[in-house]
């Protein structure tokens, strides 16, 4: 049996989508300098996109916002070479504010963005679309008649979108959206990892509703993958002294157990049964095999006990 067939798949919440516990995130194929502190060229981006669709992970995440379409465009180049999304793959994208128009979030805007995603990705139907960063408007305006939610729900009714989710950084606001019961899936990002577990209540609320739960940025945007010395950035900004200190302590515990910090960070999310998919961002083809190795790295229970003391 090929490696691809051996990977576990699980239903993404109450959707019929069968996903790998690891989703490959592609913000890096669009955003670079401002968010991650480096840039990548077209060749590296396309090599990464091609590697993603070669598997073994069958789940890939993008957004219209990433590089204002660049991530979707680059994935689209790889998808066209393959004649479309490979069988068994699940692709999620996100629709929300318009960076070209004062970051505004409105019904026409999200409709236009979804149409552009279809075009850039070369996909007529989008399996999973998340309402992206609704904090750029008010909850009332987003959910009002004629608002962005209704626009996305309309596209779902037409079959353009199969499933609708919500992705938001602000935890109390995200919880409010989850509690509407209108969304089939949720993305928490940068708020549930070895450095912070703020998103805990959202994960619990989503699980109670049978929603698909995607936990993005298990490395806190890179510090837990590359280490605090090499990459002292957290949540897309310079890390605070407190975060750096915590990351160093976690790294020291991992070193004592002979475990890479990245393996512990990835598995912290993977081992939580409420999380259906952990979304790991990459901008290099070799990250696929590295992620596979990190996800399988043997971790003794003693390490979890020690990191548990540090993060409690
Ligand atoms: N609003 C939302 O819904 C939302 C928000 C944020 C993120 N996301 C999604 O979640 C994904 C993950 O978030 P993120 O990328 O910001 O944070 P992350 O997954 O915590 O960290 C990504 C960083 O870790 C590095 N990395 C990954 N594997 C590595 C390895 N094996 N060795 C060394 N470095 C490694 C990557 O470096 P390289 O670039 O060098 O590969 C990248 O810079 C995004 O791509 C996006 O799809 C969604």
Structural notes for this entry:
Helix 4 (70-82) runs parallel beside helix 5 and helix 8 runs parallel beside helix 9. This protein has a single domain (3-311), classed as TIM Barrel, CATH 3.20.20.100. With 312 residues, the protein is an alpha/beta fold. The longest helix is centred in the last third of the chain and has 16 residues, at 241-256. The strands form 3 sheets. The protein has an 8-stranded parallel β-barrel with strand order 3-4-5-6-7-8-9-12, surrounded by 5 helices. A two-stranded antiparallel ribbon has the order 1-2. 42% of the residues lie in helices and 16% in strands.
Tell me the distance between the termini.
42 Å
Biggest β-sheet description = 8 strands, parallel, barrel
At the first level of CATH, the class is: Alpha Beta
What structural category characterises the helix and strand content? alpha/beta
Q: What name does the CATH topology carry? A: TIM Barrel
Would you identify the CATH H-level superfamily?
NADP-dependent oxidoreductase domain
Round the mean pLDDT to the nearest integer and report it.
95
- Helix fraction bin: 40-55%
In short:
With 312 residues, this protein is α/β, with parallel strands linked by helices.
Ordered list of secondary-structure elements with their pairings:
Blueprint: H1 3-6, E1 10-11, E2 18-19, E3 22-25, H2 33-36, H3 42-53, E4 59-61, H4 70-82, E5 90-96, H5 107-121, E6 126-132, H6 139-143, H7 148-158, E7 161-167, H8 171-178, E8 185-189, H9 200-208, E9 212-216, H10 223-226, E10 233-234, E11 237-238, H11 241-256, H12 261-270, E12 277-281, H13 287-296, H14 301-311
Parallel strand pairs: 3-4, 3-12, 4-5, 5-6, 6-7, 7-8, 8-9, 9-12
Antiparallel strand pairs: 1-2, 10-11
Helix pairs in contact: 3-4, 4-5, 5-7, 8-9, 11-14, 12-13
Bound molecules: NADP nicotinamide-adenine-dinucleotide phosphate (NAP).
NADP nicotinamide-adenine-dinucleotide phosphate (NAP) binds at residues 25-28, 36, 61, 132-133, 167, 187, 189, 216-222, 225-226, 262, 279-284, 287, 290-291, 294.
């Amino acid at each position: 049996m090929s490696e691809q067939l051996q990977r576990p798949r699980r239903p993404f919440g109450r959707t019929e989508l069968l996903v790998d516990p690891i989703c490959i995130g592609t913000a890096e194929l669009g955003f670079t300098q401002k968010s991650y502190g480096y840039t990548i060229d077209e060749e590296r981006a396309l090599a990464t996109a091609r590697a993603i669709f070669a598997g073994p992970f069958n789940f890939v995440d993008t957004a219209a916002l990433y590089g204002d379409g660049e991530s979707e465009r680059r994935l689209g180049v790889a998808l066209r070479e393959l004649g479309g999304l490979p069988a068994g793959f699940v692709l999620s994208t996100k629709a929300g504010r318009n960076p070209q128009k004062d970051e505004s979030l409105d019904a026409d805007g999200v409709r236009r963005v979804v149409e552009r995603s279809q075009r850039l990705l070369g996909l007529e139907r989008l399996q999973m679309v998340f309402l992206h960063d609704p904090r750029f408007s008010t909850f009332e305006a987003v959910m009002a008649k004629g608002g962005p939610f209704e626009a996305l729900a309309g596209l779902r009714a037409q079959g353009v979108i199969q499933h609708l989710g919500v992705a938001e950084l602000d935890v109390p606001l995200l919880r409010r959206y989850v509690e509407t019961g209108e969304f089939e899936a949720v993305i928490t990002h940068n708020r549930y990892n070895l450095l912070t577990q703020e998103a805990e209540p959202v994960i619990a609320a989503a699980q109670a509703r049978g929603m698909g739960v995607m936990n993005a940025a298990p490395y806190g945007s890179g510090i837990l993958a590359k280490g605090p010395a090499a990459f002292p950035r957290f949540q897309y900004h310079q890390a605070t002294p407190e975060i750096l200190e915590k990351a160093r302590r976690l790294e020291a515990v991992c070193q004592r157990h002979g475990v890479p910090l990245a393996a512990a960070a990835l598995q912290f999310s993977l081992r939580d049964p409420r999380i259906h998919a952990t979304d790991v961002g990459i901008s290099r083809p070799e990250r696929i095999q590295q992620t596979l190795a990190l996800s399988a790295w043997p971790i003794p229970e003693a390490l979890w006990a020690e990191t548990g003391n540090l993060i409690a």
